[in-house]
Design goal:
Chain lengths: 279, 293
């Protein structure tokens, strides 16, 4: 009898904790969205911060008309797409070769690449500034995409390596016997099997690039060439009453990541678990 | 016999290796070289030996930054582990609902740091932010905490945001790990009369130990390197109270323009982190090897 009471108590406690966690996760995001549709008058009174009486799209209009928000958004899409495409292509080639032909050289390279992932970005930002400067790529989106490869490529190799390991070698051996070249085996047989892994890697690389802040802050100076992260953060320094537009920008800036997230939630959780259990 | 460079094993790896050398290997060596020079944004580099390293070791603001970084990373990690267990194990009790609550709980980990940090900056606003509003409602009327402006409070505020971002990750890792523990162990323990605490200490913890060691080390490292969160919330202020490695390095290298001095800051700390780095990378490579690399 006492045991059942304890179980009920634990269930009850569990529900409370989970609901509190959900609330703690959602309230800041809810407050961001509410702020973005609040008229300034209600914002400044501040008596009912979590409610909005006269929703308005004024902040969104301001954002699109008087700030380069559209440009920032497009810049981020451009840079993230380029670097993700390159990282995915080179990463898939490398991961395939490493998983099929694990020579000592390949393993050492993988280890070194992983190690680079654990060095602070602050170490790389100064030399990358000078590298891009000597290539005349400073303050350009192409230069930024190149710099982003320093974290997207190691990550994509690492993640894809895990996925490639799960595909038995017999499959590509069979393809080779049937007359495929290595290239053909990868392209026609292995990659289709890996579609979901490729998509997950793509999403990860894209969101990492989308979220990056330090590199664009250092490597881009022209306001119109900023990424969305630096752009939104720069609004904070401007007008002191910019809360509405900043939160509107935050709401719009979260959408791409949230859409991706909805697509691959299962994969993310699966990947987190696989990645961590493996380790 | 095919030429060495045309063998598929080499041909497929080579492009990635070249890019890695170009954007990682060469910059790293260049960074080390720069740390031995007086390079600024505007001027060329002159070799100055270990001058930059000597300078920082003697300066108290470097040690303060180093200490802050450790506090920031350990605080974040500590809160993440404690609340991660609380939420993760609670989620496990409501297993049927985990598909509904899991995605909601993970949200803070998904939202771009810059955006969630700006939202928190707005929540911290002493007059209009919801934190003080809630505290007022909870009975601390008139308690207008200056979350980011008060030097004694600022570090805790920054840690709070960082933990908010990391707790969801720990919760889901712990939830997923708990699912892997065989239920029979708990049944047997219950029959032997073990209470909840000893079940937790002697079954749950040992099972999750390996996963947690890796995830914790990674989180510690990544938090210690964090830039965006601190830079946006406080820029290292007030009066250096939240200055961490990356913000210090960035401010010196790009805002003061002293690249040689700036890049020295993280390089000086790197050797101290080396054991952690080696632990993580060997663990990950081990994981890959076990899968048959």
């Amino acid at each position: 009898m006492r045991k059942r009471l304890l179980d009920y108590l634990l269930d009850f406690g569990g529900i409370l904790v989970v609901l509190a966690a959900v609330a703690a996760s959602i309230i800041p995001l809810y407050w961001m969205t509410v702020t973005s549709i609040k008229p300034d008058r209600e914002l400044l009174i501040g008596t009912a911060p979590l409610w909005v009486f006269h929703p308005t799209v004024k902040h969104y209009q301001y954002l699109l008309r008087f700030t380069p928000f559209g440009r920032w958004f497009a810049n981020s899409v451009f840079v993230a797409s380029i670097t993700t495409a390159v990282a995915l292509f080179l990463g898939a080639l490398a991961a395939y070769a490493i998983s099929r032909i694990p020579s000592r050289f390949n393993i050492r390279m993988t280890q070194l690449t992983l190690l680079s992932y654990l060095i602070p970005r602050a170490v790389f930002v100064v030399p990358l500034y000078n590298l891009l400067s000597s290539l005349r790529l400073l303050d350009t989106l192409w230069g930024l995409a190149l710099a982003y490869l320093s974290f997207t490529l190691p990550f994509s190799i690492w993640l894809l390596l895990g996925f490639f390991q799960n595909i038995p070698r017999e499959i590509d051996e069979a393809a080779l016997i049937d007359g495929c070249s290595r290239w053909g085996a990868l392209l026609r047989v292995i990659l289709p099997l890996l579609a979901s892994g490729m998509i997950a890697t793509c999403v990860y690389c894209f969101s990492m690039s989308w979220n990056e802040f330090m590199y664009p802050l250092a490597l881009v100076q022209t306001q119109a060439r900023n990424t969305i992260t630096v752009g939104i953060a720069s609004m904070k320094q401007g007008d002191i009453l910019a809360w509405g537009p900043i939160m509107a920008a935050g709401t719009l800036g979260s959408i791409p990541v949230l859409v991706f997230y909805a697509f691959i939630y299962k994969k993310i959780v699966g990947g987190l678990v696989a990645g961590s259990i493996k380790g | 016999m095919k030429a060495w460079a045309l063998r598929p094993g080499v041909l497929f790896v080579l492009p990635a290796v070249l890019v890695v050398i170009f954007v990682i290997g060469y910059p790293f060596l260049y960074a080390v070289w720069t740390s031995f020079t007086d390079k600024t944004v505007a001027s060329r580099a002159n070799f100055v030996g270990i001058e930059n390293y000597r300078l920082w070791i003697q300066r108290s603001d470097f040690w303060k930054t180093f200490f802050n970084t450790l506090v920031f990373a350990s605080g974040t990690l500590g809160l993440s582990i404690i609340f991660g267990f609380l939420v993760g194990l609670s989620l496990f009790r409501l297993k049927r609902w985990s598909d509904v609550f899991g995605p909601l709980i993970l949200l803070p980990w998904i939202i771009p740091t810059v955006i969630s940090t700006l939202v928190w900056w707005w929540m911290f606003n002493p007059y209009l932010g919801i934190l003080n509003y809630f505290l007022g409602k909870a009975g601390f009327a008139g308690a207008q905490f200056d979350w980011l402006g008060n030097p004694r409070l600022a570090m805790w505020s920054v840690i709070m945001v960082s933990a908010w971002r990391n707790i969801p990750y720990f919760s889901l890792i712990i939830f997923a790990g708990r699912k892997e523990v065989p239920e029979e162990l708990y049944e047997a323990a219950k029959l032997d009369g073990a209470d909840l605490l000893s079940q937790f200490l002697f079954i749950t913890i040992p099972f999750l130990r390996r996963v947690l060691a890796l995830v914790s080390t990674l989180t510690f490292i990544q938090t210690a390197y964090d830039f965006a969160l601190v830079y946006i919330l406080t820029r290292g202020g007030p009066a250096g109270a939240t200055e961490v490695l990356s913000t210090k390095s960035f401010t010196v290298a790009f805002e003061a323009g002293k690249m040689g001095q700036g890049v020295t800051v993280p390089l000086l700390v790197l050797p101290l982190f080396l054991p952690l780095l080696l632990f993580v990378s060997s663990r990950i490579v081990q994981g890959l090897l076990r899968e048959g690399l």
